[in-house]
Amino acid sequence: MSSSTQTPWYKDLAVYREPRVWVIFGFGVISGFPWVLIGSMLSAWLQEVGVDRSAIGLFGVVFVAYSINALWSPLIDRVKIPLLNRWVGQRRAWLIFCLIGILFATSVLTQINVVEHLWWVALAALVIAIFSATQDIAIDAFRIETFGPHEARLQSAGAAMATAGWWSGYSGLGAIPFFLVDGATLTWQDAYVVLCFVIVAQLLFVLTVKESKRYRPELPKFNHWLDWLRNTLVDPITEFFKRNGWQLAIGMLAFIFLFKIGEAFLGRMSIVFYKEVGFSNDDIAVYSKMVNWWVTIIFAILGSFVNLRLGIVRGLMLGGIAMAGSNLMFAWIAGVGPNTNLLLAAVIIDGFTAAWSTVAFVAFISLLANRAFTATQYALFASLGNLGRTLLSSYSGYVVNWLDGNWQLFFILTAVMVIPSLIILFALRKSLTRLEQNYHRELE
């Protein structure tokens, strides 16, 4: 049994007094916020102007940037941005660079007529996705490097606060445009103007925190560019397979790819569903955003305690089963109609399962990353998980159309999509449990 499971529960709470944990929360907010700009907010805008479900779903293709960011993740480990790097450090320099790019693309959306210039909207969304996916690499590397290998509780708390922060950026800040636009007092372009000021505030936050250098290994020096290329692009991948063996490695990668697909299909069409079934923008802001925000934060923190006690593998299994079951709540709403009480129940249950499964998932892929290749390996795992979520879920609108708008059947299918990953997890449970136990023994 690991030392973490022998510690009194009240000592687990003490980790939240650590300032480093709250910095991770702030960076989580920054990570989740761009999904508002190109996700729920943009979907609602497109739906209101009459864009077809299939086209709205295809806008999800821009999220593929999160799936392939591993291709340029070595740059965040190796390349130093001139001037900025000397001023604020390597990780924060990349964050500032990306936030400026997101701010520019968002300002473009404030001037666009979505009906007349749909392709320009898509291009601006793609630019936001690329910069956002790039800043996620720096944020994940910052988080992992902030806590040492011996700080298991802080690492778990960091995963919880990263999740809570992400949902604060996505749901908490994501409620702002829906409140602004409800009642037609402001246009969606006006709402994007307001969100530009939120991005400026995020830039100021990055400038106030300290660069993470505490547990970052020294990078080797190279005499030839081929040595640099091998160490940057090849070694992070080969090290993972050598360390785990190809069978276990492929199994883990398959699980990472499949785990979040059902949740992604539901999330991609959720705003369209809410509006089609009859909920107002105000309802979406209150229930889908504000309530979901607090539910997710609370259960993300509780989920970190559960994972410490049960272990990451059991946490993933239970979280996955609960996640599949929660999708059926939306099938219930599809049959009943715009009942806010039922929506409240669905949002609470979905927020609980999403938080629990996400915390376990983040802790799992953080465990797999070798600190010698922090940004590259974590980005590889996160990219693989995002690939199923973004590329496949972009066809969710086509699936709803193929089902002739049968939302009940659609949500049942999203629940079934979780099952393959749970079968893989069950098959690998012994190997993964040994891996986790060896990790904790190294900490003792």
CATH fold group:
Growth Hormone, Chain: A
Question: What are the segments in which pLDDT stays under 50 over at least 5 consecutive residues?
Answer: 1-5
Beta-strand level of the residues, as a percent range?
Answer: under 5%
- CATH H-level homologous superfamily name: MFS general substrate transporter like domains
Structural class: mainly alpha
GO molecular function: transmembrane transporter activity
InterPro entries: AmpG_permease/AT-1 (IPR004752), MFS_dom (IPR020846), MFS_trans_sf (IPR036259)
Transmembrane segments: 21-42, 54-72, 93-112, 118-139, 159-179, 191-209, 248-271, 291-308, 315-336, 342-366, 378-395, 407-428
Protein name: MFS transporter, PAT family, beta-lactamase induction signal transducer AmpG
Describe the structure.
The structure is a single chain. By secondary structure, the protein is mainly α. The protein has one domain: Up-down Bundle (Growth Hormone, Chain: A). It is 78% helix and 0% strand. The N and C termini lie close together (11 Å). 50% of the residues are buried.
Topology overview:
Elements lengths: L8 H5 L5 H14 L1 H15 L4 H6 L6 H4 L4 H6 L5 H5 L1 H20 L8 H29 L5 H21 L2 H7 L6 H21 L16 H20 L1 H13 L2 H17 L3 H30 L1 H25 L3 H29 L5 H19 L3 H7 L4 H10 L2 H25 L1
Helix pairs in contact: 2-9, 2-10, 3-9, 3-15, 8-9, 8-12, 9-19, 10-16, 10-18, 11-12, 11-16, 13-14, 14-19, 14-22, 15-17, 15-19, 15-21, 16-17, 16-18, 17-18, 17-21, 17-22
What is shown here, in short?
This protein has 22 helices and no strands.
